[in-house]
């Protein structure tokens, strides 16, 4: 293919263009830089947006002294934590000129200090464009909160602007195609033999997101027969539990027990880069602080503006398909993992419970998972479907 034909091919792939624009926007937000968001539904106006978590004193001063009417966007979960229990969707609110950087970051739960609600006024339901921006912050593993301001598309201040431009439709393309398994979400990058103390002879296979930075690892234990139902464990990464042996959760124990079980008959452990149920390590540590004040693990995440679980197990479906696995015996207590695999066309032939011991530090955490997140117990049945 000639360079000109390749360029035409790339330009003709709407999904690929959208992914490129979104990846760039995520990087800009993480770096504390402004993003310009346009919309085909409102071609005469654009939004300037910056992530609250990435604000520095320098860029805050430049934004705050601009004289523009900045608004703060928060998710419905964060609004509930602030007392707006009737908010069913995200909202944007006018920010008082008297606000400081500390004020804004407290309102967005970036800082663990009491928020001053009187600094906000004129609450309005978030537009699709604003919802798209919140999704971008979650994709960046930032606390979902942004400062925005609307300008005319031909505003002189936008001329020769260095800020990245992205269209709301780019995000919509990705969201609408999130379940499209015909598009490979991952590529297999490398593999190596990996003897493990708990599982013996293993092979580690690394997969990388086609777009973004996440890397996921499949640990193939022994020599399982991929033409039959394979023992499989989906394990979301937990730095604190898996590496440091934290007693606040059961993740390290779950990982060790899964490897020991897989060693009996062979199988596959998928180690998924989804720290903190998909919120990222920084927000996970923020949630720990909130749990120390009395919130359970689900309410702590919601207090930060997230859903109770932000993970997407679509990546596990892609990994299993790439390995040639169509039937599994799933080591899990989480019915959502079973549902996700079945929705992706993977047959779950059996559920194998993993019930680790509790301790005084994680007893409430485990109880919350069974009582509020619907996790199964040893004797609970999950029909094969």
Fold and architecture overview:
There is one protein chain. This protein is an alpha/beta fold and 385 residues long. The protein folds into two domains: 3-174, DHBP synthase, CATH 3.90.870; 186-274 and 311-371, Rossmann fold, CATH 3.40.50. 36% of the residues lie in helices and 22% in strands. A seven-stranded mixed beta sheet has the order 5-4-3-6-2-1-7. Strands 8-9-10-12-11-13-14 form a seven-stranded mixed beta sheet, with helices on both faces. The longest helix has 17 residues, at 14-30. It is globular and about 65 Å long. The N and C termini lie far apart (46 Å). The model is unreliable at 3-11 (pLDDT under 50).
Features:
single chain, 385 residues, alpha/beta, DHBP synthase, Rossmann fold, 2 domains, 7-stranded mixed sheet, 15 helices, 14 strands, 22% strand, globular, disordered N terminus
Helix and strand layout, with pairings?
Blueprint: H1 3-12, H2 14-30, E1 35-38, E2 45-51, H3 57-64, E3 71-74, H4 76-81, E4 91-95, H5 101-107, E5 120-125, H6 128-139, E6 145-152, E7 164-167, H7 168-176, E8 186-193, E9 202-209, E10 215-221, E11 230-236, H8 239-243, H9 251-265, E12 267-272, H10 275-278, H11 281-292, H12 297-303, H13 314-323, E13 327-331, H14 335-343, E14 347-352, H15 363-371
Parallel strand pairs: 1-7, 11-12, 11-13, 13-14
Antiparallel strand pairs: 1-2, 2-6, 3-4, 3-6, 4-5, 8-9, 9-10, 10-12
Helix pairs in contact: 2-7, 11-12
């Amino acid at each position: 293919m000639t360079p000109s034909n390749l360029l035409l091919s790339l330009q003709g792939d709407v999904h690929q263009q959208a992914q490129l624009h979104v990846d760039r926007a995520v990087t800009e937000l993480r770096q504390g830089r402004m993003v310009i968001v346009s919309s085909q539904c409102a071609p005469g106006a654009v939004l300037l947006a910056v992530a609250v978590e990435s604000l520095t004193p320098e860029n805050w001063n430049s934004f705050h002294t601009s004289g523009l009417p900045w608004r703060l966007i928060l998710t419905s979960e964060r609004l509930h934590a602030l007392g707006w229990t009737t908010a069913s969707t995200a909202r944007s609110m006018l920010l008082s000129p008297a606000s400081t950087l500390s004020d804004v970051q407290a309102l967005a739960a970036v800082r663990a200090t009491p928020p001053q609600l009187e600094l906000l006024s004129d609450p309005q339901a978030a537009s699709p464009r604003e919802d798209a921006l919140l999704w971008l912050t979650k994709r960046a593993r930032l606390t979902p909160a942004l400062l925005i301001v609307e300008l005319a598309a031909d505003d002189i201040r936008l001329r020769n602007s260095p800020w990245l431009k992205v269209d709301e439709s780019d995000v919509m393309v990705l969201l609408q195609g999130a379940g499209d398994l015909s598009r490979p979400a991952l590529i297999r990058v490398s593999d190596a033999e990996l003897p493990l103390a708990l599982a013996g002879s293993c092979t580690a296979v690394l997969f990388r997101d086609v777009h973004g930075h996440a890397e996921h690892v499949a640990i193939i234990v022994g020599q399982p027969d991929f033409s039959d139902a394979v023992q499989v464990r989906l394990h979301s990464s937990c730095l604190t539990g898996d590496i440091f042996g934290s007693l606040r959760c059961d993740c390290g124990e779950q990982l060790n027990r899964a490897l020991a079980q897989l060693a009996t008959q062979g199988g596959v452990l998928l180690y998924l880069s989804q720290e903190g149920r998909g919120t990222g390590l920084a927000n996970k540590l923020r949630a720990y602080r909130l749990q120390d004040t009395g919130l359970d693990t689900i309410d702590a995440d919601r207090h930060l503006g997230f859903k109770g679980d932000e993970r997407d197990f679509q990546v596990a479906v892609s990994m299993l398909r790439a390995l040639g696995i169509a039937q599994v015996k799933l080591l899990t207590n989480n019915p959502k993992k079973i549902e996700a695999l079945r929705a992706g066309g993977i047959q779950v032939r059996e559920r194998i419970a993993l019930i680790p011991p509790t301790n005084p530090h994680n007893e409430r955490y485990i109880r919350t998972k069974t009582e509020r997140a619907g996790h199964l117990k040893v004797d609970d049945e999950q029909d094969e479907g």
